[in-house]
Amino acid sequence: MPLNSKVLVHWHDARLCPNIYSVGEAHGLNMSQFKTIGYLISRDSTTTKLASERDDEGQYRDVILIPTGSVISMRRLFLGSFM
Predict the structure, then answer these.
(1) What angle do CA 43, 66, 56 make, to 5 degrees?
(2) What are the CA-CA distances from residue 77 to residues 9, 28, 38, 39 (Å)?
(3) Of the candidates 47, 46, 54, the residue with the CA atom closest to the CA atom of residue 5
(4) 65, 42 contact by CB (below 8 A)
(5) Domain ranges within the chain, ordered by starting residue
(6) What's residue 81's pLDDT?
(7) Which of 31, 41, 47, 79 is 20 to 30 A from 1 via CA?
């Protein structure tokens, strides 16, 4: 995937479930799933970095770091494409 591409990343995130659970209830808990859209800054075996915005000088704002192992899928977006 080319850097600076606009992408849609579907990924798992950690989830805290504060309460008391039986074994059966605890087995029924699942990870949270998120979909994030942004500019792909970099991706390696540890971290996938996206930015919400990129200015005309190539600087980024509002960067999110997603553990690469948590990424379910990543799709490049094009102007006019459907999510």
Answers:
(1) 65
(2) 10, 34, 9, 10
(3) 54
(4) no
(5) 6-76
(6) 61
(7) 31
Handedness of CA 33, 66, 49, 71 (dihedral sign): negative
Using alpha carbons only, what angle is made at residue 65 by residues 48 and 15, rounded to the nearest 5 degrees? 110
Q: Tokens standing for 80?
A: 């006019």
Among all chains, which residue has been given the structure tokens 């699942």? 30
This prediction's pTM: 0.85
Summarize pLDDT for 29-65 with one digit per residue, the tens: 999 999 999 999 999 999 999 999 999 999 999 999 9
Q: Which amino acid appears at position 58 of this protein?
A: G
pLDDT, position 1: 85
Helix/strand/coil (H, E, C) string of 5-45?
Answer: CEEEEEEEECCCCCCCCCHHHHHCCCCEEEEEEEEEEEECC
Give the integer Cα–Cα distance in Å for 55 and 74: 23
